[in-house]
Amino acid sequence: MDLWTMIVLVVAIGCGAGIAESYFKSKRHNRSSRLDEGLNQELAELRSRVEVLEKIVTDKKYQLERELDRL
Description:
Radius of gyration: 30 Å
Largest sheet: none
Oligomer: single chain
Strand content: under 5%
Shape: rod-shaped
Structural class: mainly alpha
């Protein structure tokens, strides 16, 4: 193998490695963004549940029932 063939092979391998690295980075980013979307949706659902629970607990009737139960 002569010098120019070796130079072309080294450059081709380097470019191929760079392309492969950017491909795998984009795959990893897409996977993490889908995971983030799922977590954000779950967080929104949990927040709405907590809001409902706060409304129940701060309701006057609920507090009155608890006081009566304690007696």
